[in-house]
Write a structure and sequence with these properties.
This protein is mostly helical. The protein has three helices and no strands. Residues 11-65 form the Inner membrane protein YgaP-like transmembrane domain.
Length: 77
C-alpha cells in the first residue's frame, strides 16, 4: 500500500488540496445555488487529465514561484 508523506506541505500535496477544494466547492455550489457552478469540477478534471498526459500544471507553476518546493524527484532524506 502506498502512503504519501504528510510531514510537510510540499508542492504536489498543495495542488491536491486546491483540486479537492475546487471539485467539492463547485459541486456543492452547483447543487445548492446554480448548475453553472458544475463547470468548476469539470475544468479541474480536465486540468488533471492535461497534467497526467503532458506534465503541465498552471497551479504548480504559480505555487513554485510562490515558494512551494516539490517532493517528486527529491532523494529520500
Amino acid at each position: 500500500m502506498y502512503r504519501a508523506r504528510t510531514d510537510s506541505w510540499y508542492l504536489e500535496r498543495i495542488v491536491f488540496v486546491i483540486a479537492g477544494v475546487v471539485v467539492l466547492g463547485g459541486t456543492i455550489l452547483g447543487i445548492v445555488h446554480h448548475p453553472y457552478w458544475f463547470a468548476l469540477p469539470i475544468l479541474a478534471g480536465l486540468n488533471m487529465l492535461i497534467f497526467a498526459f503532458t506534465g503541465f500544471c498552471p497551479a504548480a507553476i504559480v505555487l513554485y514561484k510562490l515558494g512551494a518546493r516539490p517532493m517528486c524527484g527529491r532523494p529520500e532524506a
